Protein 1
Amino acid sequence: MPIQQAPAGMDTFPKILRDHAKVRPDKVAYREKEFGIWQAYNWSEVNDHVRALAQGLHVQGVKRGDRIAIIGNNRPRLYWAMAAAQAIGAVPVPMYQDAVAKDIGYVLEHAEITAVVAENQEQVDKVLEIHDQCPSIKTVIYCDPKGLRKYEVPFLFSFSDIQEKGREFAIGNASFLDAEIDRGKADDIAVLPYTSGTTGNPKGVVLSHNNILCSSFNANEFEGLTENEEILAYLPMAWIGDHIFSYGQALVAGFAVNCPESTETVLTDLREIGPTYYFAPPRVFENLLTTVMVRMEDASKIKRSVFNHFLGVAKRVGADILEGRSVSFGDRIQYALGNLIVYGPLKDTLGLRRVHLAYTAGEAIGPEIFDFYRSLGVNLKQLYGSTEASVYVTIQPNGEIRSDTVGPPAPGTEVKIDEKTKEVLFKSPGVFVEYFKNPKATAETKTKDGWVMTGDAGFFDDEGHLHIIDRAKDVGTLKDGTLFAPKYIENKLKFFPNVKEAVAFGADRDQVTAFINLDLQAVGSWAERNNIAYASYQELTAIPEIENLLKENVEQVNADLANDPNVASSQITRFILLPKELDADDGELTQTRKVRRRIVAERYEGLINALYSNDSEAHMKAEVTFEDGRKGFLEADVKIIDAQTFEPQKKAA
């Protein structure tokens, strides 16, 4: 039976942490790579660090119900700061580490933050820059002292300084913290993550301990996760997925969380740790595969031949072997040999040798990419969820893994489809309490009887698996009444390694058109192999051979669409290779790389109008943000490329 409530006496995370320190004190809880060396912390040490920080926060005046911002890359001390805040009844607010000061300022002000725990000087500087608009902030704490020793800010303290204050306080108040932890209840607010703000300002999603614990308990039980798992925590701490996988499930099961040295060393650190439990969005799996294929193009003819042969074996029988289906003795021998000389070394290179459970979510993953990993023996699954669900809405069960669905409802979850709008609705113990200080948005999203409107359109197939089509508000029709689901089309385009991002247009118009961003690594490698010179991303988009390469990809999508009676008339007639990448710093993407359609449509209105004209070229001028934060403009004449469309193979009913 699905767990609807946490076990008695273990209904908050500080209580669970305290229990780990008693039950498994010497087991590794966290690792952090610094200066090329892995530093391990056991549960006893983690508990001591958290207790000292929690008491220090109390000394600084942090009270029950206060909000504490957590800003930085994945670091053990930042995870401990969340536990410390919860121990005294405060609420952690994890924030995106790459957000600019303005975006951080909105959340700090809206959440009425009283204290900030920041990773380093970069994050401290952003907080100090907008401190005047956030007068509620009384304390700023930094973990890494580099560059901060000469800052003369009265409310700025080091992590160790606050811990030392906590230890001094504990000398005369030995029972204080345990009493505070015992006061905690399952219905208390555990965390306040903010949504990525696709359509406006981000919303604070109030999640209780019970929400996070139920999702974590249910998922761990469903997948058989134990204290022996290893996970690499590299995704933004502000994202609910990281909070569930690297905090909720890790604390519930007691498994180890490994924090990489930096974003640049993630792949190296992944190989060194060899996680058993792994999550990555489709783009990461696509990039890993692109890297492999690019390397193989540069390998000797013999190596390519061996690789391609055993890849064929894996494609034919790998998934069947993974799922325990019947496979001939000869194929098993061939697969075992392939595992010895190809699959095993390849998984070692990717850091996936020990993975027995991997998830992907957020966007659709290409069927070929999904099947590739499963054929190698990586138990990759798709799931569907949201911040408002404490992640899990659907999960693919073992033995029912398919590339075209996101699976049936997760344990303890009910899912239904609105008959009129086709919107997906769900109800579960993980359903959020409310949007922070936003009762209107809460009422628009969550019904009185607990059903949450996801905003996504979908349907169930005959086997009870959910298919997601698009955002419900984005699903429209062409002028002739044909269904237009832009995300469905965009995902088909992004299945090709040459395409990094795509934006489709067509609602209330006669035909479908699109913007396409190239994948610089994949297309750049193709250009080099074909002796095509280029000096920049912009130059690459204007090369005729590249235009033809992407034209073939678009026309393959059109051929696929022609076979689907529901969207056969939504084929792409014209497209543009944008000479700049859509960028979160330019406001075109959210921090989780979701397209902000309204902003893109407004910013590139001239290009969209050109796509629906008889013009063969259009002029573009767009503001860009450089790596050092400076603003500038990019101007270019952009070619409009016509694509072949195909007759529908069968008529829609």
Note: The chain has three domains: 13-265, 282-471, 476-642.
Protein 2
Amino acid sequence: MLPAVTTPILLARTDATPAEIEHGLRDHELAAELRRHHAQGRARWHVIANAFAVRILAADQAGASWFEVGAGDLGDESLDQIKVAAMAKQLTWEDVQAADLTQVSADVMNSQMASPAKLKEWLRRRDKVTKIGRGDITRPTMDEVVSLAAWRCQFEGCGANLRTHLRPGTRGNFAYFAHIVASSPDGPRGDKVRSPLLCDDPSNILLLCDKCHRLIDRVAPNQYSEHRLLDMRQRSMANVEHCLDSLRYPLARVLVLAGNIQGQSAGFDERVAEEAMWLQHLRRDNNRPEFFANHGGHLGDPHSTAYWPSFFGLLRAEIPRLQATLNGTAHDSPQGLPIALFPAPHSTSVLVLTGRLLGEARSIYLFQFHRDQVAGTYGGQWAWRGDPPSADKYHVKVLHQPEAGRHEATLLVYLTNTIPASELPPDIHENGKWKHPTIVVTVDQPSRQVIGHPEDLQQFGLALDSALRTVQDEWRALTVNLVVIAPITACVRLGQKMQARCQPDFVLYERAATAGRGSFLPTVRITSQHVVHVETAASCPLN
């Protein structure tokens, strides 16, 4: 008589991955474990089975100690080994009602030897309750399910084309109609009342590939609750709808302003960016995203001596390529496409300069990276999720009126924070006085979330227009000092407002990266023709 196992015995299998432990074993994995235990002299096996899955224990001939083999799908490969044990009278079998087999206390002592006929009967019942075939699902229900899924596996992260077999060139119907609430009360997630009511309900059916169907019904049914599968179905349908709806959206070329700040390079997820575009009713063209100003990761300080000469070398090579992209001559796609710009963290000066190079002559869709949004949602941190701004959100205030004969002015943009005047450099403010006529564009409550909707950029642009008209047309300034404390897209938008002709020179200031609150120092001067490094006078043409 075999000794009893009164509590679940969990073997710490050092060769198992976390996914295997959490999600159970597929047929080939279970077969590999059986072979491993057999090679170690454990040829006596005990099966704990409910109506759709198995859990197997192994012991040597003495049966003194039992070891966990695993729980999962008893398929063709593992079944061959189980049949051999059954014919050798080395297999005991225990039928249970529990859905979670890992929580069952094995009772080897009171279990019966399992014959090949017992195995055959259990398999017949298992196939019936898990409905590997199409079962009682009607043709109209099938048609609706495959339409909502667009013939793609609806399991999260799979998306297999169910009209194409793994064998190249083979076409057909390789879809499985998986019930969320099992069509049989004894099946995975089955219910005595709801199972018969929902067996032909499209809202209770997932379209899956064979691998994913077996996973949720046989390999790890306890990991896939009704709620999780319903959520999976809803996400799949939403993605399909977005994909199909996007066929009506205008194409746009993706341009990534890929930068770094103090060596912290930013990554770019194409899929998440594409989702953010769909939410704005845009569709990416067939070209891969183009990266601009992808400066070296070791160069992140705009005040370092090496930063701007190195950046200008990069810029000389990239400006012609950027102009070709804007003109529609750089890619094998229709000309005149709008640009979807995804600006990563960069120095304020580079962001403004990029906007100056882009200009306003072409349709530019700006996407703001929202640091405080949770990653993993549709569109991720690139998605616009804020509300439209009020009509009076952005203010233009004159802080100091011009004096006769003065041709220099200061433009402050305070959107994320307001800088005390005492912290500004002496060539802008000194001894409690503004050195030049000064104007500020700001909001009532500056914050990192100030730009939360595309209309924010439109209204901010109107406020900039008003400020620049004052500076250029009324004050006749030839040089404008710029201090910009604003989100990335607002910096780019400011640069777009700089005209290639008939503009004053703009001198940008940024805070130095020193301990505490560093001083504001000039970085570059943007003229109508060049960008010039203030400290070294190194320059780069903008045309």
Note: Residues 393-541 form one domain.
